[in-house]
Amino acid sequence: MNVLLGIDLGTTSLKVSLYSETGLRIGSQSREYPIQVPQPGFAEQDPLDWWNAFINCCQQLKADYPEAFEQIAGIGICGQMHSQVYLDQHDQILRPAISWMDQRTASIAERYNRDASIKDLIFENTSNTASTTYSAMHIRWVKENQPEIWEKTESILIAKDYLKFRLTGQKATDYSEASGTLLFDNQREKWSQEMFDLFEIPSQLIPEVSASDVIIGTVSAEAAKITGLRAGIPVANGSTDNSASAFGAGMISSSQVTLIIGTAGVITVCSDKPLIDHLDRTLCWHYCLPKHWVTLGIMQTAGESLQWFKNSFDPPDETGTESGDIFNRYNESIRNVPDGSDGLIFLPYLNGERTPYWDSNARGVFFGINLKTEKSHFIKAIMEGVSFGLRNNIETVESLGIQIQDVRAVGGGLKSQVWLDILGKIIRKPITTISGHDTANLGNIILCGKAIGLYTSYAETIQQLVKTDRTVAYPDGSEIYEKQYPLFLELYQDLKPTFKKAAG
């Protein structure tokens, strides 16, 4: 039996899973690690925390599943985007990795966006605009503010690529990961020398880029000794966690969508050409498949909106119940609340909003409170407001010239049949949920399996390994939601100047 190992290097934890070649998850281990905040607006991590978490997971999996662990035929990997590791000439870490969450580069991004010609140049080369998220902004900050670090820097690796380097001794990255640097020409699938020149970053600091489904090296004798893995196991190039998760949910064709309601809300739309948004509302990145791209809409606080409500009005010390119990009670409590929550509309902008507004001043609003409004109305209105926000993002992507047909849903928020039905009525497209909760590592092992020749066709492999759960379809939607949705959009536009005034 061939066994494949998947590694998902997330922002706060790393998960390692063993799979059979038939897609059966044999076992899984995860380890958490901290985010360091040396000062407000900063967010950093120790790359050794990632490596040590991986070692611990491997050792535990080997102890729990010794036979399967010895049969590992390949390793697939994905990870958090943007976060970068600085190495010296001896490949020693020079400073903590700067996380994608870090906001220290706001003034640098503003500097590049202020000049229209430079902003246009960046967009022309990368299909995106500068923001605090991109690696190039962080690298530029190190160059300007830590010259003693910059002078010693010989190579820069994104998070998962550092783990690959520790495993194989090879430095490499993939198209999807390169998209998050703002140094990559997404349309031409190659590094942009113009961006290296603009940001004054020597191109030799950045590794070669290639497809996700190629083998970049094998587990070294040194790594084998530390992790317990067998030396010589092939390691795939891998992809971003967003790409791997969408791929593990079965997204392989243009017009397919993966929708996630987790802390944030994310729609990832697959296309066979870059969908360029000249209005700068969405993100355009490369997918984990060659000649495939993804357009992303990202809500800041989706599932987190309901979590906020729970923390504020049903804290554990008062209810004595766990989060899962509370959310089950919420589902029951809203069953008799009519669609539209008797006129209550929620704007889910509790911590600003990303796409399509990019408005850090936006805030959450309950509109339409009346004497009939009860606690259950607020709960359902939150679910409806988040769903309106997701529809807004879907329609924004469709305005770029693609008709979305197939929506695949993953993430904890849509375990609720009630919320799934609300979302189905609001977006008016069929939504299919995916069985299992580790789609990122499933995507990892499919990419790896293809790289080592275990799988020959992605379409056939997806059909065999990705299992769907349930589908909801409300093509006609709901009359009340069709009336409320324009009001939802209008409320934000009317309040936008007020949000800005309040922030000032």
From TrEMBL:
Substrates-to-products reaction catalysed: D-xylulose + ATP = D-xylulose 5-phosphate + ADP + H(+)
GO terms, biological process: D-xylose metabolic process; xylulose metabolic process
Gene3D superfamilies in UniProt: 3.30.420.40
Keyword Nucleotide-binding carried by entry: yes
EC numbers for this chain: 2.7.1.17
Keyword presence, Lipid metabolism: no
Keyword tags: ATP-binding, Carbohydrate metabolism, Kinase, Nucleotide-binding, Transferase, Xylose metabolism
Residue span, Carbohydrate kinase FGGY N-terminal domain: 4-248
Residues covered by the Carbohydrate kinase FGGY C-terminal domain: 259-451
One GO MF term attached to the UniProt entry: D-xylulokinase activity
Pfam family, one: FGGY_N
The family this protein is said to belong to: Belongs to the FGGY kinase family.
PANTHER family: SUGAR KINASE (PTHR43095), XYLULOSE KINASE (PTHR43095:SF5)
Full protein name: Xylulose kinase
